[in-house]
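Input/output pair, single chain:
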Amino acid sequence: MRDFAIMTDSCCDLTAAMAEELSVLPLSLHMGGAVYRNWLDGRDIGFPEFYGRVRGGETASTAAVSVGDFDSEMRKILQSGRDILCISFSSALSATFQSASIAAEDLRQEFPEARIYVVDSLCASLGQGLLVWLCAREREKGRTLEEVRAFSEETKGRICHWFTVDDLNHLKRGGRIGAATALFGTMLSIKPVMHVDDGGRLTPVGKVRGRRASLLALVDEMEKTAADPQNQTVFISHGDCLADAELVAEEIRRRFGTKDIHINYVGPVIGSHSGPGTVALFFLGDPR
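Output:
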């Protein structure tokens, strides 16, 4: 049985260390007249630098991974004699899944003996990262490519995403809320509570007054749907607000006794749309 590589893109927001065994293709952003790739190790633009520039008033536009980039990376893997399981950023939020699918279809003609599977994660940030990380653990157990692919399809709908933002104006610029909502919400210190739905789309669910209340609301949602919260791995991502992410982690430990919690930045591509002060919580639940 041929070995296989697990491929994903940088919107998984895993740490570089956690992604060492993966093939990760970077999305990109255009900011201040320059193009930066969203590498997980921040080699093009560091995460604190990016958020500092956004706080200073700069904006960024973002781009999906190209078909050519997927073709090049997939080709290297296939030429090494391995097959591919590619798990992409939600197709509802990016064209990256489409790029991967086109490249895979082209390469199947050239490498008819190879197995190339592309999975639409319907996830974002460390929700995507959690799915990929769990699939890598399944591979470590000796599961076959088909078994890990089936696991990814069965599990992706159970990856719960709950998040809040500190500045509603970033959601306004992205078209998620109207200008009046952003203005009055800011004046009244209203914070949205949002999630990623079953179709992989960002969806507002509620709103609370005050930052601390919005952070605790994320844990409230986990309490409603998490499967065995004490014994699962939980991921938290943040838009350059580590103390707030740690507050969420501490509340999870207090309520559920969860031990395995990982915290990392929201990368610059997603952060271009959510802004500084974003905090997002990811866990396995039923339903999403």
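The longest helix spans residues 125-140. The chain is about 40% helix and 25% strand.
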